[in-house]
Design a protein that fits this description.
By secondary structure, the protein is α+β, with helices and mostly antiparallel strands. The protein folds into 2 domains: 7-54 and 108-232, ATP-grasp fold, B domain (D-amino Acid Aminotransferase, Chain A, domain 1), CATH 3.30.470; 58-104, no CATH class. The chain contains 8 helices and 10 strands. The strands form 2 sheets. A 6-stranded antiparallel β-sheet has the order 9-8-5-6-7-10. A 4-stranded antiparallel β-sheet has the order 1-4-2-3. The radius of gyration is 19 Å and the shape is globular.
């Protein structure tokens, strides 16, 4: 079994899934059409619209509004993403870069969430675990907590079916605890770096993959994971003496 974890390998793996299957290898990846839509954030917006999930307004380069947020449409790990608060922060280089897209800047009133979803081989949702990203470093969560709150309720029905989805899908949204509004940003058809928190909370996706693909078991919907579980990551100092 192969499970992708890095964005840049997704397209080519999705295109070659049947070749892996022919060799008796389960490549747990979504259909190429969905993967391609997820890798291009402009098409991701279209996917969210079909699911009736709210998202930030995307601006035309000829009609930008400030403040706004600039990022590459195929970016990963927050590389190349930046907030533009005033027009003088917009350089000609940013504007002319064909990969850059501009959208509504989400205010600090919103909290960032990554949602780990598990889809079976028929693209049916079997589990959904929102993780609040309390602290992020270099695009990866260093402090997070599981939340079974309004974010869960909002996405539970809307993500019931995601055509072509398979295995672990991570959905990134911003959520406002005051009015419980949602602004969805990305869909990543792979395991995310913060999945160990979801696993610790009781949503055992690796076990389900083994049961589904090797033992031919059906995975029922599961919502018994632990809410408000906190994960803290940190660097440790290691001293090594020459002798």
């Amino acid at each position: 079994m192969v499970m992708p974890t890095i964005d840049i390998e997704l397209n080519i793996l999705a295109l070659n899934r049947e070749r892996f299957e022919a060799e008796g290898i389960h490549l747990v990846i979504s259909n190429y059409e969905l993967v391609a839509a997820c890798r291009d954030k402009r098409k991701t917006a279209e996917t969210y619209s079909k699911l009736k999930i709210e998202q930030p307004t995307i601006y035309s380069k000829n009609n930008l509004q400030f403040p706004c947020f600039c990022k590459p449409y195929d970016g990963s790990g927050s590389i190349g993403a930046l907030a533009l608060y005033t027009p003088d922060m917009l350089s000609q280089e940013l504007l002319e870069d064909e990969k850059n897209m501009f959208m509504e800047l989400i205010s600090n009133e919103y909290s960032e969430y990554t949602v780990d979803a598990y889809y079976d081989r028929s693209s049916k949702l079997c589990c959904l675990v929102p993780r609040e990203r309390i602290e992020v470093r270099e695009g990866e969560v260093s402090k997070g907590a599981t939340r079974k709150n309004y974010v869960y309720k909002y996405l539970r029905c809307r993500l019931e079916r995601l055509e072509g989805a398979r295995g672990c899908i991570t959905v990134q949204v911003f959520a406002n605890p005051e009015d419980e509004s949602i602004k969805a940003l990305e869909i990543n058809p792979r395991f995310g770096g913060g999945f160990p928190l979801t696993h610790a909370a009781g949503a055992n996706y690796p076990d389900w993959l083994i049961r589904e693909y090797f033992l031919n078991e059906c995975i029922d919907f599961y919502d018994g994971w632990e809410s408000n579980m906190l994960m803290l990551r940190y660097d440790a100092k290691v001293i090594v003496h020459e002798n």
